[in-house]
Description:
Structural class: mainly alpha
Amino acid sequence: MDNTLVLELYIFLTAIYSGLIVGFVYDIYRTIRYYSKPGKLITYIGDMLFFIVITFIFFAMLVKSNWGEIRGYIILGFIIGIIVYFKIFSKLIFPISIKVGRGLKKVMERVLFLITCPFKVLERKLFSRVNKLKKIGKEVLEETKKYKKIISSKK
């Protein structure tokens, strides 16, 4: 086979591979959005960041495989890779990423609980003492109000 034909085939397969990577990155992004449920502004920012990442992947592939030359079969390979990913792999990977995300969420909740637990105990003890001091302060105020005439009449 001619060297240029082998090189072109390599570039085409690299474009398909890059399309597969973009599909996987999109599934990760979908999983993050599934659990975070962002508002409109955060969705807009996330979409912009996603397209920046896709652009970086596409141009990194272009520079690495064929020195930045854009050709029609490269774009076609990229699109084929994305379509293949969504038709075959996404049906398997997205549910798995949801389950992994659920597990990560539980682990993060436990870690957060372990980190915040000592502070909550300290807060309860501190506030119980502060509340006792408040009670003492209120009692002192009530006692001074009760004996105000006696205290103010003494010279």
